[in-house]
Amino acid sequence: MFLDPVQFPFCLSLEAKWEFIRAECLALPTNQFDPWVQGKMHGGGWTVYGLFALGQPIPKACAACPQTAAALTGIPALSMAGFSRLAPHTHVKPHVGWAKSVYRLHLGLDVPERCRLRVGNDVRHWKEGKSLIFDDTVEHEAWNDSDSPRSVLLLDFLRPGVSDSVKDHIPEEVREYAMRMFGQR
């Protein structure tokens, strides 16, 4: 289930800064991106560069991307954020997210043709400078059928009406990865 970005006032501000965010993402060396830890969802080709985890900024990563970090401070109840890249000809298999207290946002940064996201029965295409917001607990999958990488700013924020910190059960491999990003990286 996709949600209308107009429902979330911070989207307009974030989208207005997309070109600065894109420039920082594209300037990062490829070897700074890590394979997504839940590898069974993909056969390789999905990499991430974390900026926020467990509701906290990752200092070294935010220092490397100061304009993106500043843009993220305007998002209320930010839980997680980072850059997500799909290599050419990558398929992230159907899966269901574990975080019931958040919505997921993808801001299109570098999006070649033939890239799409299915959430439930609805398939959409990323557009540069535009947000897709969806319920990560609904089955979804992603494709990059192009010959170029696809990059988005991926973030989770608490759903309206959820005022507490995230209480979801975090898979152990995700928790361990987040902790490595905070200092043992």
Architecture overview:
The chain is an alpha+beta fold. It has a single domain (2-184), classed as B-lactam Antibiotic, Isopenicillin N Synthase, Chain (Jelly Rolls). It is 23% helix and 35% strand. The chain has five helices and twelve strands. Strands 1, 2, 3, 4, 5, 7, 10 and 12 form an eight-stranded antiparallel beta sheet that branches. The longest helix has 13 residues, at 172-184. The radius of gyration is 15 Å and the shape is globular. The model has no long low-confidence stretch (mean pLDDT 87).
The CATH first-level class comes to Mainly Beta
CATH superfamily: B-lactam Antibiotic, Isopenicillin N Synthase, Chain
**Strand/helix succession:** EHHEEEHHEEEEEEEEH
SS elements, strand count: 12
Low-confidence stretches: none
Rounded to an integer in angstroms, the radius of gyration calculated over CA atoms is 15 Å
How would a textbook summarize the main sheet? 8 strands, antiparallel
- Overall CATH architecture: Sandwich
Overall residue-averaged pLDDT value: 87
- CATH topology assignment: Jelly Rolls
Structural class: alpha+beta
Molecular shape: globular
Tell me the fraction of residues in β-strands, as a range.
25-35%
| Total domain modules | 1
Secondary-structure blueprint:
Layout: E1 2-3, H1 10-16, H2 18-27, E2 34-35, E3 46-53, E4 56-57, H3 59-64, H4 66-72, E5 78-86, E6 90-95, E7 102-110, E8 115-119, E9 122-124, E10 131-134, E11 140-144, E12 150-158, H5 172-184
